[in-house]
Amino acid sequence: MGTRPLRVAAQFAAAGAALAASLAACSSGTSGGAQPANEITVSSSECGGAWHVPGPGWYTFEINNQGTTGAEIDLVDPANGAIYAEVENTGPATITPMRLDVGSGRYAFLCSFADYDPQQGTVVTVPGHTAGTPAIAPITYNDLIPLAKRYVTEEEAAIKVMATETATLAAAVGGGDLATARRDWLTAHLQYESLGDAYGAFGTFDTEIDGRADAVGVSSPQWTGFFRLEYGLWHGQSLKSLAPVADTLNRDVDQLVTWWPTQEVTLSDLGRRAHEVIENALEFQLTSRDDYGSGTTLASTVAAIKASQVLLALLHPLLAPRYPGLPAVYSGLDQLQSLLEKEQRPNGWWVPESALSVSQRQAIDAACGQVLQELAPIAAITEPRNTLNAF
Amino acid sequence: MPSDSTESTESTESPGSPPAAPARRSFLRGLAGGVAGGVIVGGAAGAAAGYAYRGVPADPAAAADQASVDGVVPAVPFHGKYQAGILPSPSRATMVVSFNATAQSKADLVDLFQTVTDRARFLTAGGIPPVVGINGPPSDSGVLGPTVVPDGLTVTFGVGSTLFDDRYGLASAQPKGLVPMTSFPNDDLDQAQCGGDLILQLSAGNADTVLHALRDIAKNTRGGMQANWRIDGFASPARPAGTVPRNMLGFMDGIANPAVTSRKAMDSLVWVEPGAAGEPAWAANGSYLVVRLIRMFVEFWDRVDVGEQETIIGRRRASGFPLDGASLYATPNYAADPTGDIVPLTAHIRLANPRTAQSAPSQILRRAYNYDRGLDQAGDLDMGLIFTCFQQDIQRQFVAVQNRLIGEPLVDYISPFGGGYFLALPGVTGPSDYYGRAMLA
Asked: In CA terms, which of A158, A309, B5, B337 is 20 to 30 Å from B184?
């Protein structure tokens, strides 16, 4: 009884079409009764028990957590720990579906309960030569820890570069030459935008160093940082009145230099940030939202590409064997960058995003949107996962 | 022209006397409960006529209303000689989106058209989206739940004249009748909401189905095309039941249309015929699509007495009857009213379709939807009409009708601000075919 409707569903998914209306009608509102599933019981002492499937096909396993704590449940290849499917954050006394196309091969559940070592359940062999959902070799905490350490060190060096640049900037603003001040502002700001950690990891420093005026308004003394300075430098405010703003920025960056090495990187952020920095550029730079007068959001987008590339270079050894779309990510970022760099003028300044023609903007948005689709799987692939100690 | 531009002396797609609604509704409930027979019968009826259209047997408005409430309007067969979204009566929900092609090469453009085809094929049939597992974000947005329901979705895909510039080497494939939309004397066009290399119309029983389809198609084509403008629309239920849905002026809209069940009418008015003079061979079985986005100044209109409203339109507001007629589908007798004492000579329906032998070839297949998108600068409602029509020849049909309407009294209450001329591509004939295959060959 348990598998027959599932096999119908499998044929339906494969064949596509004509039954869609009637099947959808059947299952809507009767999800429990119409599609009984294989129930898999897990607890701190049991990991799936005895289970079987009659052959390859689409299955939904209902993961019934009868333990007393939360758990991550994976379906793995017992030969090497590669993961076919997972459900995360299953709470006690909950049932969570796990759906996959089971192919020929060996399967076992791996149960990771909070405060317990992961345990592996019964090994089930599905005979034949039918391909199903492929298993991916998990990335572990141990894989990511050395990368995170390297990343902190690299970012620390980049922050120190920025600190020298904000010092130069503060001196330029104090020196009273507008052209120099604007040039030094751009140099320092792009350095900041090229830090992957500017997206989320700097806490209140980000507000102080690169906060938008949204919350307080452009005339508020509470508004500080690069954008505040940009607003003044491009809205006719005197350098004398901006000198304290530049000094505050420089001081805040110095404090960041001191604070940063005391921080821990969340391991899952490494992969996540590789696409988040580009998402951020799409949201704030390619819409001109972050343009406070200099018209350099395309340059900021190039800086975000650099931030993404730093993270990808770090993760490359882990991604290359796991993600067939990786070459498209690299070429997509390169294509986006070359489209953006066409908009840099010979004098070093940039065409404002708002001044692009429709076709220029659409070409850039298309390249950005496409590479974001290619980047999206990286966060899931590089999320650290529990494994048996044997692997 | 927000009311009815095409008055026809032929039988209309909606029979004059409404059928017994309760029986029809219970039939559809049976269908919703999983009886696939109705789908097959409807599909077979369409196929027998040579058209892939939704073969709802009678009282389509009532049937569509109930099915859209249930969220299970039957699937419309995707494959066919013609695109499936052209002939059906307006669905409850629609969206029109204009795109520019951003594909880098001709090969990328082919890939784009194949991808749009693949997505449309899946979305119109429904099914379970692929499971990605731990390799990335889910393949589907989940907006329609774990199983994508077809909900009567149609995906109508077309091309604009700008696709045939020098980017993809398609200049020699440009259809003769495909030109940029001209501005008419009463227009106030915003170029940002006009034209486009590509046009996509998504129609279904419900707005979530339409939005789901857009998100699916867009995420699979980000590098290949970028949206220029977009508008959401809806068709109201017929009120009272058995009549014709109303527009935002309160008048029934699209009472008369050429009969979609008439092969002769469709071949002479809607489809680009194989071998048509000056048209490339690939365009055969396509249909020219005109989109006009028309703001209605509804506050102003609501301050006009109903008698004046009715003389502007030429129909009774409450009943939809022509001013000289005693039933909804009555044919106005203009010959008996040469000076316009009953139906004024400047009434919208009389200008749009003078019902003469000379004007007959200018009939269009009119498919109008209402839109509603917030407020204007003065706080007035930004609502109106997404006028779409299909035809064989834009100059002979839409342009001729529009030229007759220049200066009509209605223009004070409406303002066309966007849209474009497109060619809805020939249908995708089978699993190995794709949109525009012959055009791109």
From this structure: B337
Read off the amino acid at residue A381: I
Report yes or no: B231 and B94 within 8 Å, Cβ to Cβ: no
* Domain limits, chain A: 37-137, 142-381
For residue A110, give both structure tokens. Answer: 């791996």
Question: What is the Cα–Cα distance from A66 to A43, expressed in whole angstroms?
Answer: 5
Alpha-carbon distance of B320 to B243, in angstroms, equals 8
Q: How many helices (H) and strands (E) does chain A have?
A: 12, 8
The sign one gets for the Cα dihedral B95, B99, B103, B108 is positive
DSSP codes joined into one string, B87-132: SSPPPSEEEEEEEEE--SSHHHHHHHHHHHHHHHHHHHH-BPPPP-
Q: Specify the higher pLDDT residue, B151 or B8.
A: B151
Nearest CA in chain B to A26: B34
Interacting residues of A368 by C-beta distance below 8 A, sequence separation 6+: A278, A281, A282, A286, A301, A336
Among B130, B144, B119, CA closest to B200: B119
Q: Tens digit of pLDDT for each residue in A44-85? A: 899 999 898 999 998 999 999 999 999 999 999 999 999 999
Kindly report the pTM of this predicted structure: 0.86
Chain B residues touching A26 at Cβ < 8 A: 34
Q: Which residues contact A47 (CB under 8 A, 6 or more apart)?
A: A109, A110, A111, A119, A120, A121
Q: Identify the DSSP state of B332.
A: P
Express each pLDDT in A334-347 by its tens digit. Answer: 999 999 999 999 99
CATH label, A37-137, candidates 3.30.450.40, 3.20.20.70, 2.60.40.420, 1.10.10.10: 2.60.40.420
Q: Minimal CA–CA distance to B233: which of B413, B351, B121, B97?
A: B97
Distance in angstroms (rounded) separating the CA atoms of residues A19 and B142: 20
Q: Which residues pair with B246 in a beta bridge?
A: B252
Q: How many residues does chain B have?
A: 441
Q: Phi/psi of residue B64, each to 5°?
A: -65, -35
Supply the DSSP symbol for A17. Answer: S
CB of B39 within 8 Å of a chain A CB? The answer is yes
- Cα atoms in the Cβ-side hemisphere of radius 13 Å centred on B42: 26
Q: Give the residue from B289, B291, B293 showing the smallest Cα distance to B158.
A: B289
Pairing of strands A94-102, B225-234: unpaired
Nearest Cα neighbor of A86 from A136, A38, A41 is A136
- Fold category of A142-381 in CATH: A middle domain of Talin 1 (1.20.1420)
**Cα–Cα distance between A192 and B288 in angstroms, integer?**
52
Structure confidence at residue B48 as a pLDDT band (50, 70, 90): very low
Of A194-198, A386-390, B150-154, the range with the highest mean pLDDT is: B150-154
Q: How far apart are CA A57 and CA B202, in angstroms?
A: 33
Chain A segment 326-385 residues within 8 A of B by beta carbon are: 332, 358-359, 362-363, 365-367, 369-370, 372-373, 376-377, 380-381, 383, 385
Is residue B22 within 8 angstroms of chain A, CB to CB?
A: no
Taking only the tens place, the pLDDT of each residue in A10-29 is 223 333 333 333 333 333 33
Whose CA is closest to B350, among B1, B2, B5, B79?
B5
For B264, the 3-state DSSP assignment is helix
What is this model's ipTM?
0.84
